[in-house]
Amino acid sequence: MLSLVPTPIGNIADISLRSLEVISHAQVMLCEDTRVSKKLIHLLKERYELTTCEPKFISLHSHNEVEFITALTPDFFDQNVVYVSDAGMPGISDPGQMLIRYCIHHKIAYDILPGANAALTAFVASGFVETRMLFFGFLPHKGNDRASALQEALFNGYTTILYESPKRLDKLLSELSVAAPDRQVFLAKELTKRYQRFYRGIASELILQMEKEIRGEWVVVIEASETKGSSLSEQDILSLDIPKKAASKLIAKITGENPKECYTRLLKS
């Protein structure tokens, strides 16, 4: 069978008893980074006297995931297969979902163990009382894709959670200070680690605090907007007195459809 096992996001003591048990019986360890996983196993053996079946370590990450799963055969799971990401819950900004889908399609038994997750930890720590939230992971790095994703993150009506690298945190705060200057933002640095820090305020205030704090792994929680963004539908656009070519561009913008294909479809309708 397949087991997805969450690993500590900082503090090794957050490993669960169930995770230790499953890892101890693993015959194959699929790892986002085999070096990180081998180091974790070594630490678990030292601290918790973990014994293992000396599993085979196989690299499985975002760059080889499609190729790896395409080459799989169901009998691969006749052994105890465990997937771990470098830190946190597999399938959340890390591989995992494609493995689960493979198991579902091929009627292979699988299990998901609960455990550490940076997004949910930061969401609770933020103190924002809006309990509905959206998780966006990492925004695109630049260009129109980033601008569009940021607008969606800011004006969806929910508390929004982002991951951000220290290289782009200052850029994100500058963007927030312009796009939503009065919105409360919560920053969590190095969750569960020795230098864990929490910051809360409007983006322009946080920029001043971050000058000496930029290093580390960050989770950004943005307070929900008072009103949701536009929920314009295709029918709303088609009801407007505008040419079909212009309508097709607008529809493609909100649906992701190819504008030319959308235009052709509208001409046939």
Report on this model:
It is a single chain. The chain is an alpha/beta fold. It has helices at 17-24, 34-48, 65-70, 97-105, 118-126, 143-154, 169-179, 203-209, 234-238, 244-255, 259-268; strands spanning 2-4, 28-31, 56-59, 81-84, 110-112, 133-138, 159-164, 184-189, 197-202, 218-222. A 5-stranded parallel sheet has the order 3-2-4-1-5, sandwiched between helices. The chain has a 5-stranded mixed sheet with strand order 6-7-10-8-9, with helices on both faces. α7 packs antiparallel against α8 (203-209) and α10 (244-255) crosses α11 (259-268). The longest helix has 15 residues, at 34-48. The chain is flat and about 70 Å long. The model has no long low-confidence stretch (mean pLDDT 91).
Topology:
Layout lengths: L1 E3 L12 H8 L3 E4 L2 H15 L7 E4 L5 H6 L10 E4 L12 H9 L4 E3 L5 H9 L6 E6 L4 H12 L4 E6 L4 H11 L4 E6 L7 E6 H7 L8 E5 L11 H5 L5 H12 L3 H10 L1
Parallel strand pairs: 1-4, 1-5, 2-3, 2-4, 6-7
Antiparallel strand pairs: 7-10, 8-9, 8-10
- As a percent range, the share of strand residues is 15-25%
List the helices and strands in order.
EHEHEHEHEHEHEHEEHEHHH
Roughly how much helix do the residues carry, as a percent range? 25-40%
Largest sheet: 5 strands, parallel
Radius of gyration over C-alpha positions, nearest whole angstrom: 22 Å
pLDDT averaged residue by residue: 91
Catalogue the unreliable spans. none
Structural class: alpha/beta
Walk across the major sheet and give the strand order.
3-2-4-1-5
